[in-house]
Design a protein that fits this description.
25 strands, 19 helices, 4-stranded mixed sheet, globular, alpha/beta
Length: about 550
């Protein structure tokens, strides 16, 4: 049987105008700034006018540890929202924007799949409304003002060897990880070692996504630390007088973007920090709009629950005062068999032994959500045609031992109709008692918080901090930053910091090699293993398959 590709399905769908979607959602015309027929920015002043309106239920969609076999988290998120509409519930989606890095790298598009997508798919995956360009421009303006300050006399006495602020580009480009700039003589700047982060790893991205309004955005931008003086005092964007101009570049990017699903469910897509090197959630403003405009707001966090969900619950929910009503944990039989040691080429064959061997990965994520965070959860099995009834039954039996139900998700093939069973279970869970709590108090030391995450979420024996990390932790405490939450930068492919340890590994420690403060975002980044803030392209990048014909129609995007 031949299937349409995701982009073919998206291009064959008749979209409603964005004004129809906004009206259906209850957004008045005065808040809508159209970007063509099918996408719009929504004025953040809408939140002020809705402040007295009660919030809907917040549903977090997360997943098991990612594998090459695929889990389908965004697809399930979109299909669940459509499924809720199918059973008569008013749902609104809140998702991240895709980065051009993965779009042209390994992953391809990131707007869902099959008949559970957000559209216009090509726009969302490419330039969209220009948010990432604005974030990159603001990041690089700060870099330019920093180096210009040093060149023009360095009144703040910045130590050029201790500049921590990097330039940014929204592309996987390993060539830019480490560079030397300012060459070519005195008039061309002060020579120093430098580098680039991918835009989604920029602190400006995290700041935008965690800001509650434009005044909060300006205050957070001002607190960004760009480097240190010769006597080790931090230097901020505010001291460089860069905050006002940066916010001028970001004022439109701060407004959430409204689009639709294939079934015309309203969807906010805004912000896109990576979950393995940043906090991995869409903007607080988009989530709040979804909560005010829907009875059920469906959002997702990046990668597995040990990364995206942990940061969503410990960082975003803490800062925004959010409490999820239920959590969906997405898995697939194929992915679990991969965790059980099956090669990708053999995942289509029934293998109960490998499935049972891989199940501890799912069960650990489930236990983390229900026991550690105290939230009701359902496991959504993203069904593939090769899944067998004995395999599905085994997952159901193991999950029920943890008092968690399993619902089949067939949204890729059937859209919202295939998400009705999952939607009904989510509605039921939202009425259950909620014992949600963050897993550490902010008063804990940096090392104590690191150990809580490592032991409670990863099930490690603890953390090992390098000499540099210990020195950095001591200095950050002296500067008054020890009461910030932790943002772990870790491989997405394992509970550990070693991507080759699949399943639910035991008897390991997590090595923290570097700590840096994101004072504007309001968290401390802990870099573990060999994680990098600038990915590279694979041997055969997805960009090689993308093309556009004489009519302007794009192909190969996903």
């Amino acid at each position: 049987m031949s299937y349409k590709t995701d982009i073919e399905i998206a291009q064959d769908t008749k979209l409603y105008s964005i004004t129809e979607i906004a009206a259906k959602t209850g957004i008045a015309d005065r808040y809508i700034e159209q970007y063509g027929k099918y996408k719009a920015k929504i004025d953040y002043n809408l939140l002020n006018d809705l402040s007295n309106q009660p919030d809907g239920k917040l549903i977090l969609v997360t997943a098991i540890t990612p594998t090459p076999a695929g889990e389908g988290k965004t697809t399930t998120t979109v299909g669940l929202a459509d499924g809720l509409r199918k059973i008569g519930k008013k749902s609104v989606v809140a998702l991240r924007e895709p980065s051009l890095g993965p779009v042209f790298g390994v992953k391809g598009g990131a707007a869902g799949g099959g008949y559970a997508q957000v559209v216009p798919m090509e726009d969302i995956n490419l330039h969209f409304t220009g948010d990432f360009h604005a974030i990159g421009a603001a990041n690089n303006l700060l870099a330019a003002m920093l180096d210009n300050h040093i060149y023009q006399g360095n009144e703040l006495k910045i130590d050029a060897r201790r500049v921590t602020w990097k330039r940014a580009v929204d592309m996987n480009d390993r060539q830019l990880r480490y560079i030397t700039d300012g060459l070519g003589g005195r008039v061309n700047g002060v020579p120093r070692e430098d580098g680039f982060d991918i835009t989604v790893a920029s602190e400006v991205m995290a700041v935008l996504c965690l800001s509650s309004d434009i005044n909060d955005l300006k205050a957070r931008i001002s607190r960004i630390i760009v480097g240190y003086t010769r006597d080790e005092k931090p230097v901020t964007a505010g001291e460089l007088k860069a905050a006002g101009a940066m916010v001028a570049l970001l004022k439109d990017a701060l407004k959430p973007n409204l689009v639709q699903t294939l079934e015309h469910t309203p969807a906010f897509i805004h912000g896109g920090p990576f979950a393995n090197i940043a906090h991995g959630c869409n903007s607080i403003m988009a989530t709040r709009m979804a909560l005010k405009l829907g009875d059920y707001a469906i959002t997702e966090a990046g990668f597995g629950a040990d990364l995206g969900a942990e940061k969503f619950l410990n960082i975003k929910c803490r800062m925004a005062g959010l409490t999820p009503s239920a959590v969906v944990i997405v898995a697939s039989v194929r992915a679990l068999k991969h965790h059980g040691g099956v090669a990708k080429a053999d995942l289509g064959m029934e293998n109960l032994a490998a499935l049972e061997k891989g199940l501890p990965n799912l069960l650990q994520h489930v236990d983390n959500i229900t026991s550690v965070f105290g939230l009701p959860a359902v496991v959504a099995i993203n069904r593939f045609p090769t899944d067998t009834e004995p395999e599905l039954k085994l997952i159901e039996e193991k999950c029920r031992l943890l008092d968690v139900n399993v619902a089949l998700s067939e949204v890729w093939d059937k859209g919202g109709e295939g998400g009705k069973t999952l939607a009904e279970e989510v509605v039921r869970l939202c009425e259950q008692t909620n014992r949600f709590a963050q897993i550490y108090p902010l008063e804990f030391s940096i090392e104590e918080k690191l150990n809580v995450i490592a032991t409670k979420i990863y099930r490690a024996e603890g953390v090992e901090m390098t000499a540099d990390a210990k020195k950095q932790a001591k200095r950050l405490a002296e500067l008054g930053f020890s009461n910030l939450p932790i943002c772990m930068a870790k491989t997405q492919y394992s509970f550990s910091d070693n991507q080759n340890l699949l399943g639910a590994p035991k008897n390991f420690k997590v090595t923290v090699r570097n700590l840096k403060v994101s004072a504007g975002a309001g968290f401390i980044v802990a870099l573990t293993g060999d994680i990098m803030t600038m990915p590279g392209l694979p041997k055969v990048p997805s960009a090689e398959k993308i093309d556009v014909d004489s009519t302007g129609k794009i192909s190969g995007l996903f």
